[in-house]
Design brief:
The protein contains 33 helices and 16 strands. By secondary structure, the chain is an alpha+beta fold. It folds into four domains: 329 residues, ADP-ribosylglycohydrolase fold, CATH 1.10.4080; 247 residues, no CATH class; 130 residues, no CATH class; 154 residues, no CATH class. The strands form four sheets. Strands 3, 4, 5, 6, 7, 8, 9 and 10 form an eight-stranded antiparallel beta sheet that branches. Helix 12 packs across helix 14, helix 13 runs antiparallel to helix 14 and helix 26 packs antiparallel against helix 28. The longest helix is centred in the last third of the chain and has 37 residues.
């Protein structure tokens, strides 16, 4: 997009937002200026704005009687002046506006006021939030100041805004942006101190400035630091590069990177051309626009008058030696609106909408006249994405469900209908999971463009409802997500066919033209789940039939369903509703991100628990297992009541924030409450217990255990769910001699292996009821804040058969003796093996508490050498493991750990004190 922006500045000899949007559209639709020839990794906010720009172009062409193919090449100043280029929804504050920005201040740096103002407008046309506008203004000012020779200390000064206030026309910055200006990015710990390169524009700005502040005047170090923050790495690095590249200069960039740039000669040519055009604009060539406050624009946008305020530089006032169009800026001339993904297909023009709860209010007597229909040609999006077991995917984000609606579905404020049913997908996601997504926008229905005309078009009476908005636009088409689980043996072949399908769907091919082998390979997909806004597509069970059905449905518009709804505040159409009566406040993106981060893990845990309770292995004929399962069900019923109560609390809080009754800070306070952590711990305990029962069910299927054995087992274990160990008395501790030469070591180790006695630790079942930290205790307090569950006493799930003797005949086991110096990790190896042994998948291991067979510890350090290292301990206190003396062996005595494998084999690891302990 930066290359698109450079081309626009060159071709139009100045700043023409309409032309910038045209070139962004070319990139989106045709891969213009893309290194791959295709648009890739486009953000949802930019996508929405480009699609809105296309919609307005079609309306504009019909109103002005312009041929559609001429729209992208408009040069008539009066026509361009009438076109509203602010295509973003309200409240959009993504980082995409910032990453493409650098060409604007580079081009206009000789006129700082103009450069700063145009920087803000450049972002505003696709990202409409005040924070996006001000972030772009501030960043543009930094680049201008850099080109004027200011030092790094001046650039990063807390008083930068105050020192350049005239550049900003004395318009204050949003408080969040001002906080960055005042040095919120100056954190030595970087990531550890909370610096995050997120999609939220203020976070991205802060992360890029942190990288610039801490790069020690080395571009390479700063760029790598920006990338290594994680999250939206390419954007953070691009923003850093815009400022740092300007400051350090082209010649100081890492040569190995410069040599690897794709199409480097072309990019250098563009930059030189842009420099040439900018130099031709002398200080007097372009006069600044009349003073314009963006806040006043927003106020006018939301006012009922909606007067058209056109701002342009007339040709008479623009003394220039070149023939190029004036700067054209128009404030919005239409009512404010928001968009929602159409998860409920019953929506139509004139219908009411409750934005507090994100639900349609269905009325049977709606009559609408004078509606407009616009057919949108070849507007589609299709991609294939690979899964990743290490990534916590939010499936609703993959399909670009609008932020507020996504949160409503996640918290069950709004039911998960249509395409939003993807939230019900419960199967695991790994590297063999594929997401095939297809979105086809066919047409738009809309009401007239002003309040009076819309009011006259809706003939139905206004009922008393909870409505906040009215549907004034409906986009129709097809949206579908297929989640495919591939076989590892066929993955590469299936990927090839899926990419072929993607190309065919993208190019609107009606003939998929697949060979018999390709069709056969698709039938070998292990599992297919399909979600769509069209019900008949969700009934298909394989991806091949889905592709044929998409082609079929696409050709018949009567089978399309709504994709998105455009909503207008109800007060603009019904005078009886005032802004005071119906207040709607959208949550800021960073608040939604925090809510999802804190609550989605709780939701996922609860979903896993419900799925476990449906597992067929629990329907056992064994009385003991059946009783244990019934106990777990009872615990689940109690937890379900608490979970429902907690979710209702969050639902009410979010609705109150949207109504303006409470501040969004109330949500943050709820999220940081200790109650939620206690609930997570309790759910996790039941999950762990059920996993243990599932493993025992498999064991009992192969080996019948008598009631006497159950009784024996119960007698040998107390009520605490913790690691159990049996110890045999022995005379003194086993100590290694200081001399560890090969000869003596061989003799000593040989005599050790031949010893008849050693300690044996039994890895027991852990399916005893949770008593000391149980759900009953949780319920007694009617809350979760008082519950304190020790990780060391949490249940864990080793796969082991019951054992009733502390010493097994060595002929039936594989004995592995672990010998090594102090600190090489013998005990750590046994802990690692116990975790590998206990969990089926990496996801399961990451989700549950770790297995701690041997109490262990490790040291955490920080970059600040003045801060002493912190020793972190795991597991219960064990007198055989002493962690305080750094130069001593942690393990004091030899101890063995026996694992029963499913094939009947047994492995015994013998842990030993570290060699070289002189004490």
């Amino acid at each position: 997009m930066a290359l698109c922006l450079i081309n626009s500045l060159i071709a139009r000899h100045g700043f023409v937002p309409y032309d910038q949007l045209v070139r962004y559209k070319w990139w989106y639709r045709h891969g213009y200026m893309s290194s791959t020839g295709l648009c890739f990794d486009i953000g949802s906010a930019t996508t929405q704005s480009i699609q809105e720009f296309e919609r307005r172009q079609i309306i504009f062409a019909n109103e002005k009687n312009i041929l559609f193919e001429h729209l992208d090449y408009l040069s008539d100043h009066q026509l361009l002046n009438e076109f509203n280029v602010y295509c973003s929804q309200e409240g959009v504050a993504g980082n995409g506006a910032l990453m493409r920005l650098a060409p604007v201040p580079l081009f206009f740096h000789r006129n700082p006021k103009l450069a700063v103002q145009y920087s803000g407008i450049s972002g505003q046309i696709t990202h409409g939030d005040q924070k996006a506008y001000d972030s772009c203004r501030y960043f543009g000012a930094l680049i201008v100041a850099t080109l004027q020779g200011e030092t790094k200390d001046n650039l990063l000064s807390n008083r930068f805004y105050d020192n350049h206030k005239d550049w900003f026309n004395d318009e204050p910055l949003h408080p969040d942006v001002q906080q960055v200006v005042e040095g919120s990015f100056k954190r030595d710990g970087g990531y550890e101190d909370g610096i995050r390169g997120k999609g939220y524009i203020v976070s991205a700005l802060e992360a890029a400035l942190w990288a610039f502040w801490s790069d020690e005047d080395l571009f390479e170090k700063g760029a790598l630091a920006a990338v290594n923050l994680g999250d939206d790495t390419d954007t953070t690095a691009a923003i850093y590069g815009g400022l740092a590249g300007t400051y350090y200069g082209y010649k100081n960039l890492p040569q190995k990177w410069v040599d690897s740039v794709y199409a480097k000669p072309f990019i250098i040519c563009l930059c030189k051309w842009m420099t040439y055009e900018a130099e031709k604009l002398s200080d007097g060539s372009i006069q600044p626009e009349p003073h314009f406050s963006r806040q006043s624009s927003i106020d006018r946008r939301d006012s009922e008058a909606h007067s058209m305020v056109e701002r342009t530089i007339s040709e008479e006032n623009s003394v220039t030696t070149h023939s190029f169009p004036p700067i054209i800026i128009s404030t919005p001339a239409i009512m404010p609106s928001i968009q929602r993904t159409a998860i409920d297909p019953k929506g139509k023009l004139g219908l009411l909408y409750d934005a507090y709860r994100d639900r349609l209010i269905v009325q049977s007597d709606i009559i609408v006249k004078d509606q407009h229909l616009y057919v949108l040609a070849n507007t589609m999006k299709c991609f294939v994405r690979k899964g990743n077991s290490h990534e916590n995917l939010n499936l609703l984000q993959i399909i670009d469900i609008t932020n507020e609606l996504r949160l409503s579905v996640e918290l069950n404020i709004s039911p998960g209908l249509g395409i939003a049913k993807t939230i019900n997908y419960t199967s695991s996601i790994d590297s063999y999971t594929r997401f095939l997504y297809y979105n086809y926008l066919d047409r738009e229905e809309s009401l007239p463009g002003n309040a009076n005309d819309i009011s006259r078009s809706i003939l139905s009476p206004m009922p008393k409802t909870q409505a906040t908005h009215v549907v004034i636009g409906v986009n129709w088409g097809i949206e579908v997500l297929a989640i495919l689980q591939l076989s590892p043996d066929d993955a590469s072949k299936i990927d090839n066919v899926l990419n072929q399908i993607r190309e065919n769907l993208t190019n609107n091919n009606t003939n998929l033209d697949m060979t018999l082998d390709e069709k056969r390979i698709l039938n070998r997909i292990n599992h297919t789940a399909i979600y769509s806004n069209i019900y008949e597509l969700t009934q298909i069970t394989n991806v091949l039939d889905l592709c044929y059905k998409i082609v079929d449905v696409r050709a018949n518009r009567t089978r399309h369903s709504p994709l998105t709804y455009t909503l207008c505040p109800i007060r603009f159409l019904y005078p009886e509703y005032s802004e005071k009566d119906v207040t709607y406040i959208a949550l800021e993106p960073q608040i939604i991100e925090k809510i999802e981060m804190h609550l989605l893990s709780l939701y996922c845990q609860f979903k896993i628990l419900k799925k476990l309770l449906e597992h067929k292995s629990f329907h056992s004929s064994d009385e003991y297992l059946r009783q244990q399962f019934l106990d777990a069900q009872n615990q689940f019923s109690k937890l379900e009541k608490i979970y429902t109560k907690e979710m209702k609390k969050y639902q009410d809080c979010i609705i109150d924030v949207r109504k303006g009754k409470v501040s969004s800070n109330a949500i943050i306070r709820e999220l940081t409450d200790n109650h939620q952590n206690g609930l997570k711990e309790a759910i996790n305990n039941v999950i762990t217990r059920l996993n243990n029962l599932k493993e025992k069910g498999r064991s009992f299927h192969d080996r019948k255990v008598t009631p006497n054995e159950h009784h024996s087992y119960n007698d040998r274990h107390d009520t605490k769910i913790e690691y159990q160990s049996t110890k045999e008395k022995r005379n003194g501790n086993f100590k290694y001699p200081l001399d560890t030469s090969e000869k003596k070591f061989g003799r000593n180790s040989s005599s050790f292996v031949e010893r008849d006695t050693y300690h044996e630790s039994v890895l027991p079942y852990t399916d005893r009821p949770l008593k000391s930290h149980s759900t009953d205790k949780l319920l007694l307090d009617d809350g979760i804040g008082t519950v304190h569950v020790s990780h060391s006493k949490s249940s864990w799930s080793p796969r082991t058969y019951p054992k009733f003797s502390s010493l097994m005949p060595t002929g039936e086991t594989i004995n592995i003796l672990l010998l090594g110096e102090i600190g090489v990790g013998k005990s750590t190896f046994i802990n690692a093996f116990a975790n590998y042994y206990s969990f089926d998948t990496l996801d399961s291991a990451q989700f549950h508490e770790p297995v701690v067979a041997i109490s262990s510890s490790f040291v955490m350090t920080s970059r600040d050498l003045s801060v002493p290292p912190i020793r972190v301990r795991l597991g219960m206190t064990d007198c055989n493991e002493i962690h305080n003396n750094y130069d001593h062996s942690t393990t004091q005595e030899c101890k063995s750990y026996l694992f029963h494998m499913h094939d009947g084999a047994k492995i015994r690891f013998i842990d030993t004190p570290g060699l070289g302990d002189i004490h």
